[in-house]
């Protein structure tokens, strides 16, 4: 059994893998891979997936849930187009690679972006908190968890504007108040399911209000919500597995229980990083992510030996993103605390050997 600390696509519960595998061979007599998306059995899957998202996150009345394709990357374009109003201006926080991507794509579709806060000056190792927002903005966009750098918002950014959030890498990891947002989007493959589905949670008031002259049908959220995520062929298998994962989540205490577990996993690993003389955490302590824990060796010359040690313990997916180096332990919902303990034991043992 491997301990998968990969950043995404990532670990899902073993029983979800098992059920997904079974459905490839037999989903009510057909394979889930060949069933029509219009068949009542799949329509029921889509309905249940949407319903389970609403249950898991206590989505209030007046909000809709949709499953699209294109990943969070297409989401950068979709949210900018759908949130564009008279001003065609928006405030964005730049907290790393994905936030920068969102800014770039918003500009491409004609949003005049004001980057109101950025941590680029220090290589994105903190969350900017003191910023002011100029008047005349249509919406405010931020990235709740910065998967590559290992920073996370532990409070909402201060703004009264309609709030839009890329929650790709921490959705379902903790309780959130959906009513704080006008639009939430997330690629499935960090905590929800396999790659291929992208989740949108949108306030109904937002739909159909875009002032963009350019609005291809696929990019119009109103179309997807009205067609109940069946505007075109949805990512059938990805939605099916996300549905299985959501069932598993709700059967195991929901996001509330996951939050407790995720806090315990983060505390365990950060305590080791802070007490182990060979390692240091790479981001501001108060902004540390509970999903993606980034750390480095003080002495890079020990890297080869450390890499051998964690690989020998069955750990995979630990190298940091190619743009930052070091190590990144991604600890999504399905990663058991026992796997974190294995990593901590490897680090302790390595410190003893290199004392
Ligand atoms: C992974 C990730 C993305 C990119 O997602 P794709 O589904 O590959 O487009 C965007 N934002 C965040 C925060 C991510 O973690």
Give structural notes.
This protein has 355 residues and is α/β, with parallel strands linked by helices. The chain folds into two domains: 14-251, Aspartate Aminotransferase, domain 2, CATH 3.40.640; 254-353, Aspartate Aminotransferase, domain 1, CATH 3.90.1150.10. It has helices at residues 14-25, 40-56, 71-83, 97-108, 221-226, 236-251, 254-275, 303-312, 337-353, and strands spanning 3-4, 63-68, 89-94, 112-118, 139-143, 145-146, 151-152, 163-166, 183-187, 198-203, 279-281, 292-297, 315-316, 327-330. The chain has a seven-stranded mixed beta sheet with strand order 2-10-9-8-5-3-4, with helices on both faces. It has a three-stranded antiparallel beta sheet with strand order 11-12-14, covered by helices on one side. Strands 1-13 form a two-stranded parallel sheet. The radius of gyration is 21 Å and the shape is globular.
């Amino acid at each position: 059994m491997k301990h998968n600390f990969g950043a995404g696509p990532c670990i899902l519960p073993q029983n979800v893998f098992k059920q997904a595998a079974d459905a490839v061979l037999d989903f009510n007599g057909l394979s889930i891979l060949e069933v029509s998306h219009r068949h009542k059995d799949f329509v029921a899957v889509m309905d249940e997936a949407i319903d389970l998202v609403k249950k898991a996150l206590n989505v209030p009345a007046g909000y809709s849930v949709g499953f699209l394709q294109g990943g969070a990357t297409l989401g950068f374009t979709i949210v900018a187009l759908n949130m564009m109003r008279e001003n065609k201006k928006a405030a964005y926080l730049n907290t790393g690679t994905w936030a920068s991507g969102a800014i770039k794509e918003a500009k491409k579709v004609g949003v005049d972006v004001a980057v109101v806060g950025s941590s680029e000056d220090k290589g994105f190792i903190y969350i900017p908190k003191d910023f002011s927002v100029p008047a005349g903005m249509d919406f405010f966009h931020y990235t709740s968890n910065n998967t590559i750098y290992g920073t996370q918002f532990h409070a909402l950014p201060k703004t009264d504007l309609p709030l839009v959030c890329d929650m790709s890498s921490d959705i379902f990891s903790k309780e959130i108040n959906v009513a704080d947002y006008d639009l939430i989007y997330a690629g499935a493959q960090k905590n929800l399911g396999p790659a291929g589905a992208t989740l949108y949670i949108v306030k109904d008031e937002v739909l159909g209000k875009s002032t963009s002259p350019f609005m291809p049908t696929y990019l119009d959220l109103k179309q997807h919500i009205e067609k109940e995520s069946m505007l075109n062929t949805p990512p059938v298998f990805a939605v099916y597995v996300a549905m299985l994962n959501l069932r598993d989540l709700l059967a195991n205490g929901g996001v509330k229980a996951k939050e407790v577990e995720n806090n315990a996993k983060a505390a365990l690993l950060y305590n080791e990083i802070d007490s182990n003389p060979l390692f240091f955490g790479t981001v501001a302590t108060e902004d540390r992510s509970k999903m993606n824990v980034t750390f480095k060796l003080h002495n890079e010359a020990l890297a080869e030996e450390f890499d051998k040690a964690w690989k020998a313990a069955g750990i995979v997916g630990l190298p940091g993103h190619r743009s930052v180096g070091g190590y990144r332990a991604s600890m999504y919902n399905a990663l058991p605390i026992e796997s974190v303990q294995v990593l901590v034991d490897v680090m302790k043992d390595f410190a003893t050997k290199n004392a």
